[in-house]
Amino acid sequence: MKISQIQTNNPLILKDDGIYYERKIDWFLNQWKQTANHLPLVIKGLRQSGKSKSIIHFAISHYKTVFYVDFRNHPEYDKLFSDYDVDNIKERLSIEFGFTGWKEKETLLIFDEIQDCPIARGSLKNFCIDGRYDVIASGSMLGISGYNDKCKQYIPVGYERVVEFHPLDFEEFLWVYGLNKEMTDLFRDAIKEVKPIDPSIHEAMIRLFRTYLIVGGMPSVVKEYFLNRDLASVRDAQIGLMASYRDDFGKHLGEDGGTAIRSLEKAKINLVLDSMPAQLTREMGSKFTYNAIADSHAKGSKYAGAIEWLLDYGLLSRCPSLSKLDVVQAGYASERNFKLYFADTGLFVSQLDPSFARSIYFDSLSDFKGAIYENVAADPFSKSGRRLYYYEIGYQNEIDFVTTYQGKIALVEVKAKKGKVHNTEKFVENQPNKDDYLILKLTSQN
User: Fold this and answer.
1) Rounded CA gap, 418 and 363, in Å?
2) Please, which residues have CB within 8 angstroms of residue 369's CB and are 6 or more apart in sequence?
3) Phi first, then psi: what are they for 155, rounded to 5°?
4) Could you tell me the CA-to-CA distances from 328 to 100, 389, 393, 408 in Å, in that order?
5) In terms of C-beta distances under 8 Å and separation of at least 24 residues, what long-range contacts does 271-277 make, across chains too?
6) What is the pLDDT of residues 236-254, one digit of tens each?
7) What is the largest CA-CA distance in the chain?
8) Could you tell me the pTM of the whole model?
9) Rounded Cα distance, 397 and 391, in Å
10) Which of 111, 221, 258, 290 could form a disulfide with 298 if both were Cys (CB 3.0 to 4.6 A apart)?
């Protein structure tokens, strides 16, 4: 079917610029469709990260009828979900929108910004049990503390599958550039086999990696770059996105506290976000400190909610310190000592002085290089579903990231250029179970 044939209460989603960037979720959606008795999907992620575009691209390729209900721009349509009965919902949708062409196993319902209609979320259980029609819901405010307090949330536990959606990762960025999967598979194989690639190819890849550091993975920004190849317009697009996010904060805080309380909470969220460049570029390390917030009374009890809000919104990722190294890390994560990273490195770079982007591009960056590369290293951890952790091995010495790889405790060091990992090597050498460790290094070396 064509995108113009989607039946919807928001005609804006029918406007197609003809540009679609292949995403890894495309493969996942295909597998989901082919799986018998699949659960309704709930795709959550940062606003403007490309959720709707990917869902629509999949929908028009795999279904004969698609109904798209937008609850963000049309919250009044929650009246169509006064109960959970599938046939009642179907009848109301048909009458309200003139929806036609319901076909069992060939019809997809898309519920966009489903958090704005909690009963629609609850109805996923009935759609799952009924089984006649597929449902994909999306949301950018799902799980945010303080969001929509007046609405009781109905979570159909066991009857939905929640999927995290992220901005483009570096490999997806390479696909947009024009490299096919066969080529990126060659790079992946070289990494697994620990062997160099052709030096000229390696040099070209490093240039592309530096470009990704600046551009990041927000689809609108990626589109701007590949259409114009202009870093100034890229920065303008990123600043515009950040401004829209800040506007969004105040609209979606809890309603119970009144305007004054919401304004205070919005101010806290913005102060935490404002502090992020300083948090990541401090000489004493990037552990989050409340002293970097422009508030002389800043402390954990005051700003914990604001931090949690930004994490749930999807703009930031948390990396707690570990009190002990073990293959199973979660049980040793600290609640008090942690780092925060931008979920998109391009957005982080846009918050720094404009000269930084040029210095990254021409590989002439001297200050704060470690912070920028550390942030981009955090990026694939989050996007591959791995939790972030770090470990302190002495005063002002730390292992950037800790994870599990090949059944071992993997200590990950990030070096903007070459760099040595003497401290980490010495640490491992002194461990009684040193064979349980593996050291990985992100470096520009081939």
Assistant:
1) 13
2) 416
3) -105, 115
4) 52, 11, 18, 10
5) 271/295, 271/298, 271/303, 271/306, 272/303, 272/306, 272/307, 272/310, 273/246, 273/310, 273/315, 276/316, 276/340, 276/342, 276/348, 276/351, 277/348, 277/351, 277/352
6) 999 999 999 998 886 666 5
7) 72
8) 0.91
9) 9
10) 290
